[in-house]
Every structure is written in structure tokens, then in C-alpha cells.
Design a protein that fits this description.
The chain is α/β, with parallel strands linked by helices. It has a domain at 3-117 and 214-229: Thiolase/Chalcone synthase (Peroxisomal Thiolase, Chain A, domain 1, 3-Layer(aba) Sandwich), CATH 3.40.47.10. Helix content is 35%, strand content 18%. It is built from 13 helices and 11 strands. The strands form 2 sheets. It has a 9-stranded mixed sheet.
């Protein structure tokens, strides 16, 4: 036990035409420090998660955080990036600074602005998170990559369209109660299951309701070493973390196994001294519904090829034995790349403090698990969080 989350901020995700990367960063950084009850001068180090890949013309963004307060000037500040797991990479980097005793208090911010980019460019930017020599010409961009994964999964294990629609419906239903979610609408199973003009196929067997949203947004949190955290109003500590980086080319691995996800979970759970069954809930990376389905298997909830059992038997529903994505996940909440992992940690901390929005709160939440993924199970980050005060 080396560090804890002691404060946070989370702006609603969505389309923010009147915001910029700078304005969103300043907003959540300021609010997170206020929430933690610290002054900007108390911060020892800053880590910023920002994927970009062409979304923002301002590519050198780490120092934008300093615009929040002059007292942040000259603080060690670094931008990190690891595709869609950029936010968790920033969180884990902050943990390393504290573990190395280089900092007692670290401010972590994740941000992305995607909606100002034209549609075709969005697809090309996201495709940069795949191995371009193999996947660079994939129709449908990154959705096409996961469409191929879904098609291969269906071929091996049978048509899973019912399960994918149930996952989409669950996450949209959960998102209704999340004030930070981009889409707060319960579409229902039938809409998610049926191809229609409003829900067409996008890539392979994936329909629009199987794909996460293009989003703008930011989230921030304050990390503190345990000695400092125990003097704060809130303290949610990292009982275990894991990071496993896999090969970028899908041709070098079994893409249906999400082995990096499994390894990251095994590492975090081992460090935490718990099993998957001990967790109260999980926030997992449902960039596409097929990802959440395979992640059920990779985290050890079901055997390979049996992920559908978890959703069909209600295990991952609110009130089930392991609620997954009580926030609505990326599917409903939105997926501003650099902010996603930070958002997951913020919302998990809210749950453990009993401060989640009404209707979103998991009953008797004690241990929270997080899985954030970059690329197609390439960058894999896990955290197990527990409230300490």
C-alpha cells in the first residue's frame, strides 16, 4: 500500500464545441485539487494523459496544466501516452513517482477532444492504435479491426449477437444514472439486437450500438502517499496494480484470448491478495461490446468461449454477482481517449466512498477492479482499489 486517491474531478463527456483541450484540463485540475483540499503549491508532480494522434493541433500539451494556477509553475510535469490506455498509464506513472519517494502528492489529468475532427480523420487517427503494416487498410478503421475480432470469435464459438446486444443494452441502461455520461438513454435489448436505419452494421457483426462514442472530455485525480492520505478527508488506496504490454501485430498472438488482459489481471489480483470473485464491481474497457465479452473470459469470470454466460445469467448486471460497468462504460459514458483511464479510476473511487450518483451506486462496494486497454489488448492496465478512510 503506497498511494491513495484523495480527490478527483470529472466533467461530463460528450461534444463540447465551446471547450478546448486547455480549458478542459484547467477545469478538472482545479476542481480535483479543490476536492482533495490541497493548494496547487502542495503538488509535487503532475502527469498528463493525452493520446492526440492528430485530434489536437497543439501536440505539446503537458504544460497546459500549469495554466490552472501560477503556483504549478516549475513542477515536474510529463505527458504520457499508451493508446486507449493513456489515462491509466498516467495514473500508474503517478503511482511510480510516489513509490520511488520522488513525490508525496501527484496530480493526474486525462483529456481528449475528438469531436472537432472530421469523421474520416477520426477513423484514421484511431487506426494508429493498431499495427499499420497489417491493419492500416482495414475498412471501417478501428471498428473494422474489432469487427474482424468479432467475426473470428463468432466463427470459433458461434453467433454471439444476442450476448453483444445484452451487453450494449446493460451499459446504456446503466448510463442513464451517470450524469457524466455522453449518452443517457436506455435503448433496450430489442433495439440493440436489431439492425435498423438507426442501428446499422458498422463492421463485421458489430452494429452502431456495439461501438463506443466519439467524445470530448477530461477527468483528474489527486494521488497521495499513504501517510499523507490518512490525514485527508477521503482515501481510496491501490491494493494492487498490473500492467502487461503485448505484441502490436495481432498475427503474433491469439487475438481471441486477450492474453495481456489476463496477465495484467493476474498481476493486480496477486498483489492485492484477492481473486476476481472478491471484487464488488469492475469498470472494464468496452470500446466495443465484443471487447467486454472477451474480457469476461480474460479476467477469469468464465472459461474461454463462455463469456456470454456471464451476461445471459445476469452476473454482470447491477445487482449481479459482479456488476460490470455500472457507469455505463465507454459504450454510454463516452471514450475521450486520454481521459478514459482516469475516468475509470475516478468513478471507482466514487463507488468505494459511497459517493456515486444515485442509481449508479453499487451496493456494499468494498473492492473495485479496473481494466483499461490500449489497442486490441496491447496495452493492458489493471487496478484493484479499496477504501481506507
Amino acid at each position: 500500500m503506497t498511494a491513495a486517491i484523495v480527490g478527483w474531478a470529472h466533467m461530463p463527456f460528450g461534444k463540447h464545441e465551446n471547450e478546448t483541450v486547455e480549458s478542459m484540463v484547467v477545469r478538472v485540475a482545479t476542481e480535483a485539487m479543490q476536492h482533495a483540499g490541497i493548494a496547487p503549491g502542495d503538488v509535487d508532480e503532475i502527469v498528463m494523459g493525452h493520446f492526440n494522434a492528430g485530434f489536437s493541433p497543439q501536440d505539446f500539451t503537458a504544460s497546459l496544466i500549469l495554466q490552472a494556477d501560477d503556483a504549478l509553475r516549475f513542477k515536474p510535469t510529463t505527458r504520457v501516452e499508451n493508446a486507449c490506455a493513456t489515462g491509466s498509464a498516467a495514473v500508474h506513472q503517478g503511482l511510480k513517482a510516489i513509490a520511488a519517494k520522488n513525490a508525496k502528492i501527484v496530480l493526474v489529468v486525462g483529456v481528449e477532444q475528438m469531436t472537432k475532427t472530421p469523421g474520416p480523420e477520426i477513423g484514421q487517427n484511431l487506426l494508429k492504435a493498431s499495427y499499420l503494416p497489417e491493419d492500416g487498410a482495414t475498412p471501417g478503421g478501428f471498428a473494422g479491426v474489432f469487427g474482424k475480432i468479432a467475426g473470428a470469435y463468432f466463427q470459433k464459438y458461434g453467433d454471439q449477437s444476442d450476448a453483444l446486444a445484452m451487453i450494449a443494452a446493460k451499459n446504456h441502461r446503466n448510463g442513464v444514472n451517470n450524469p457524466y455520461a455522453q449518452m443517457r438513454k436506455d435503448f433496450g435489448y430489442d433495439f440493440c439486437r436489431t439492425e435498423s436505419e438507426k442501428n446499422p452494421f458498422v463492421a463485421g457483426p458489430l452494429k452502431r450500438t456495439d461501438c463506443s462514442l466519439v467524445s470530448d472530455g477530461a477527468a483528474a485525480l489527486v494521488l497521495a502517499d499513504i501517510e499523507t492520505a490518512l490525514r485527508m478527508e477521503r482515501a481510496v488506496y491501490f491494493r494492487g496494480v498490473g500492467h502487461a504490454q503485448d505484441f502490436l501485430p495481432m498475427s503474433k498472438r491469439d487475438i481471441l484470448a486477450f492474453e495481456g488482459c489476463s496477465v495484467a489481471w493476474q498481476r493486480a489480483l496477486a498483489k492485492a491478495g484477492v481473486s476476481i470473485g472478491d471484487l464488488s464491481f469492475v469498470e472494464t474497457h468496452d470500446c466495443f461490446t465484443i471487447a467486454e465479452l472477451i474480457e469476461y473470459e480474460a479476467m477469469g469470470l468464465t472459461k474461454p468461449g463462455e463469456g456470454a454466460k456471464a451476461i445471459k445469467e445476469g452476473w454482470t448486471e447491477m445487482g449481479g454477482k459482479l456488476p460490470v460497468n455500472a457507469s455505463g462504460g465507454l459504450k454510454a459514458k463516452g471514450h475521450p481517449i486520454g481521459a478514459t483511464g482516469v475516468s475509470m479510476h475516478v468513478l471507482t473511487a466514487m463507488q468505494l466512498m459511497g459517493e456515486a450518483p444515485e442509481g449508479m451506486q453499487v451496493k456494499d462496494a468494498r473492492l473495485g477492479g479496473i481494466f483499461n486497454m490500449g489497442g486490441a489488448a496491447v496495452a493492458n492496465y489493471t487496478s484493484v482499489l479499496e477504501r481506507v478512510r
